[in-house]
Write a structure and sequence with these properties.
211 residues, mainly beta, Protein Transport Mog1p, Chain A, six-stranded antiparallel sheet, four-stranded antiparallel sheet, 11% helix, globular
Length: 211
């Protein structure tokens, strides 16, 4: 059963400091299901940006945990060598973002392929290139755990401004992807940069500040 076919209600999240916006799910009236979101910490600037963890209860008392978070950083120069973003491929951008968010702390003999890009393509919003990609991330370094719970399924969108990559990632357990995947794809597709206002703080400004 997919949630994408239901009468989904979404709300807009706007970050004036980092100057971006996206939609997130709030309710499925036909299923009497509410998305109960919990914000771990509001990111105020590049140096203090932190994941926004989101959680909601699904119908039939089944708990599904979704993580939705923005991240920021310069392109990985080992992967993206050109400064001309019109030449970047979606796979290169995905590899750049994934290389810098690698989190498994294991030895070289334990390490297996941590992430696997399933799809990557390029789009455009208001003349600005956006790179969309879908990928799996292994939650554990070995295959001893059940494969159905050993992977998280991600979908992401990345764009570039002022020499930094702005990304939004949405994920859930791989076994739950068929249920909520289409909703996460809608959220990621809605991500876009906003025209900077007087509240905008560029990523390169006051890097030493953490508030």
């Amino acid at each position: 059963m997919s949630l994408a076919e239901e009468d989904l209600k979404m709300a807009s999240f706007v970050d004036d400091i980092n100057s971006y916006s996206y939609l997130y799910p709030t309710e499925l009236p036909s299923k009497k299901a509410l998305f109960k979101w919990v914000e771990s910490r509001k990111p105020e600037r590049y140096s203090s940006a932190a994941p926004l963890s989101r959680k909601f209860s699904f119908i039939c008392r089944m708990m599904i945990t979704i993580y939705l978070y923005p991240c920021y950083g310069p392109p990985n120069s080992k992967i993206i060598k050109s400064q001309d973003k019109s030449t970047w491929t979606a796979k290169e951008v995905a590899d750049s973002v994934l290389a810098d968010k690698s989190a498994l702390r294991v030895t070289s003999t334990q390490r297996q392929a941590e992430s696997q890009v399933l799809d990557a393509h390029t789009g455009e919003i208001d003349g600005q290139p956006y790179w969309y990609y879908e990928y799996l991330v292994r939650k554990a370094p070995t295959k001893t755990a059940d494969e159905s719970t050993n992977y998280r399924h991600y979908v992401a969108s990345t764009t570039e401004r002022d020499g930094y990559l702005y990304s939004i990632n949405a994920s859930t357990l791989n076994k739950q992807w068929n249920i909520v995947g289409p909703i996460l794809q809608k959220t990621v597709a809605s991500f876009h940069l906003l025209p900077p206002t007087e509240n905008y703080v560029p990523p390169f400004k006051d890097l030493w500040r953490f508030w």
